[in-house]
Amino acid sequence: MFLRINFFYIDSRFFSITVLLGFSFLLLYMGLVIYFGSWYPSAFDAFTSILLIFVNVFIICPTFILCYLFFADKKRIKLILQHGVKVPAKAISCEFTAFLSDGGERYVCLFLFKNQEGKFIKQSWVRDILPTMMEQKSRNRQHASSSCTYPQNLFLRYPEIDEEFELLYIPNHEKHFLILNTGNSEFASNIQAERLNQEREDQYKQLQTNLTEAKVRMDLDPFNQEYQDKYHQAERDLARFDRVK
Question: Which residue, 60, 143, 192, 226, is the most exposed by fewest CB within 10 angstroms?
Fold first, then answer.
């Protein structure tokens, strides 16, 4: 029952935002009552009332809504981690849906998994491909304010078609799910290897940059012993990296 109430609060965004807006206007009315010392709107000063309404509509209400969206997303992830069931899943298709304003492309990817009752469940996520071919943390189709991967700081890419991954989902609330970036799945192992390769590539580029910078300094000041030593050290660092690689 508790879990159902929590997901009603998360899913019913129109209802929750309406309640927040009503609460903000109630706070506004109580502030006017306290300020003017009267329960009757006729006693309120017009200019002050308009000013407070402006502050409420353009500052307080947006703040409430942003806080709700932020904490609702955090709450959703926490509930999935606490009550979610881990199952294997596989993507089955990715369909193009739109071009992005920055020149990228948006796809909707469908995947399948078996729930606790043994039924196949089909869900989806949105995948954005940038012009640089790097993916963004796209948002879950059902939850526009929430990422569907976890941990989010280990995000590298989404699963490819037919690449097995692990999923946490809420029974009877299957649209609430998290794709796990860690674990023993094929997907988690692949992105871990890709992440290590990317880190090594970044390190190699940095060593090359250090060598180039040291050479330029030495060329511009060839009699400076410090620059010569740094250049030779950069050469050794790059050669050592190449041997390990």
Answer: 226
